[in-house]
């Protein structure tokens, strides 16, 4: 059992920290809380009662009696509220409502184009979210927070897109105010590959502390879990590997305005353009994937070559970070076999033997829902953290 101990001169374990133990399933009775924290019986009672007042913890008799009263168990109440999740993409947006345990209760995908301006798109998003809340049997008063993911780098302090070539017109515009008609609850914004990494780590790879999530779609990005934590970098630009320079792309123009980027030869938008030039009717990387899965040779070749170029760049990240798992997600991953055949070839051929000796390369467990599931994880991490719970108990 984890034990939270404090030196004699340090502060006592807070109610938020007690909640974290209960939520993780590390303790389930008041006596176990006392053992894990060294708090007194009175202090434990005060913290548990405070958590019950917030509605985050229930306490009731469960199980069979061994001669006395049945044991009274502490449980995290995942039904104590809901969170909203929004994953905005280039050509579609995914919306979801989840309970506080992270279970998605309602979900939909809509053709809302991230290339539209925030005024137009966000008004539609909030309207559809309000309808989804009602359809799911909940009401707006139950909303505890909103998690939102965007393509490209994100300024988390401002809750805004930052220098994204996809999100033209969104740069620097705070997105939290758009949710004001729905809720005053916290809104947290992050990069789509980051939240996908959270979803895959929490739900599919809890046993590892080092994971690299590749989001391969119209653009290319990565989410990095290192040492058991999501790493965003100094200015939120960690994982933007799609704009690494690569010899094979020398002189090729990239949509970012530079030349020689990996995306210019391996990004989904490049594959779409190449097939269009060769007479194919495609408008999105999903169309390329569909062609490949139906047996079209050129689409298969392009995806395999894209995987080779991506693997060459990812090999450097594998050498640097030494992840246990590389997870492959995004629209291109729907043609996983063709794409990853190329990726494995250069990844294992270029990275060091030691870094790849036990490395796993696997498909995303959440598939197309990785970003919206990750947006759920993002907001839950914020509103159910020990600090957030303590702040809620402290009041305004």
From TrEMBL:
<comment type="similarity">
    <text>Belongs to the ROK (NagC/XylR) family.</text>
</comment>
<dbReference type="Pfam" id="PF00480">
    <property type="entry name" value="ROK"/>
</dbReference>
<dbReference type="InterPro" id="IPR000600">
    <property type="entry name" value="ROK"/>
</dbReference>
<dbReference type="InterPro" id="IPR043129">
    <property type="entry name" value="ATPase_NBD"/>
</dbReference>
<dbReference type="InterPro" id="IPR036388">
    <property type="entry name" value="WH-like_DNA-bd_sf"/>
</dbReference>
<dbReference type="InterPro" id="IPR036390">
    <property type="entry name" value="WH_DNA-bd_sf"/>
</dbReference>
<dbReference type="InterPro" id="IPR049874">
    <property type="entry name" value="ROK_cs"/>
</dbReference>
<protein>
    <submittedName>
        <fullName>ROK family protein</fullName>
    </submittedName>
</protein>
